[in-house]
Amino acid sequence: MTDGPRLSPAYLRPGTTSFSDFLSAEAPDLLPSRRAVPQGHAGDLAPHGTTIVAATFAGGVVMAGDRRATMGNIIAQRDIEKVFPADEFSAVGIAGSAGLAVELVRLFQTELEHYEKIEGTTLSMDGKANRLAALIRANLGMAMQGLAVVPLFAGFDLAADQGRIFSYDVTGGRYEETAFHSVGSGSLFARGSLKKLYRDDLTEEECVTATVQALYDAADDDSATGGPDLTRRIFPVVHVITARGGHRLADDEVAAIADRVIAGRMTRPDGPAAALT
């Protein structure tokens, strides 16, 4: 009887804290950015996800995403999930090529878990943001062919005792945002909505409501962004991250907030007015 296949020595010896660097050396074909793509613009051949918003409040940060994926002028999926926990204290929202973005998120989740297992501690918030930037930068070749991934990253920084938000460009450029931000095709309208509604003293529930209002406004002007679907009871995915960790709000909680937002729009279609100070 012959022995079955065994792991190569590389899998058993101490190495880098970066899982993606390990894959680059030992199994580069498993990385999303190393997949062969035919020449030409491939962006219209794959579903795209939009829109992601994030906003901070006194005790943490909220990230929310609509549920629509589009392929050209077609709605490819009505209930896609675009906001995922990265680890216990952070979340990442995806915009761009949906399938590639989900693979990148899974790689990022494994990257953070691998570091924690090797080092016995979690990465700092800046370290997490930098690792995600490196993964995006590695995807630049595919981005140039139309398969771009532009995520939004947010989490609670235990050292600074506050929520933080980071945005990126397709080259892996990392930018820290203040108070709120949005990415995706409806981001212009969502940011305009948040600019009107945001206050420094928002409570957690008020912050969640502001993000749902922003997604509603984005859907109102951007055909690629899906608004609350009352018939199918499909509502945004919302993650809240505080010093106690992160969690996804239950669908019933988000539905109750969305129902209140829609009820308010029946009498004021443009949404609540900003407070005058």
Describe the structure.
- This protein is an alpha+beta fold and about 280 residues long.
- It has a single domain (about 45-265), classed as 4-Layer Sandwich (Glutamine Phosphoribosylpyrophosphate, subunit 1, domain 1).
- It contains seven helices and 14 strands.
- It has helices at about 20-25, 100-120, 125-140, 140-145, 185-195, 205-220, 250-265; strands spanning about 50, 50-55, 60-65, 70, 75, 85, 90-95, 95, 150-155, 160-170, 175, 180-185, 235-240, 245-250.
- A five-stranded antiparallel β-sheet has the order 12-2-3-13-14, with helices on one face.
- A hairpin with a 5-residue loop joins strand 10 and strand 11 (about 175).
- Helix 5 (about 185-195) runs antiparallel to helix 6 (about 205-220) and helix 6 packs across helix 7 (about 250-265).
- The longest helix is centred in the middle third of the chain and has 22 residues, at about 100-120.
- The chain is globular and about 65 Å long.
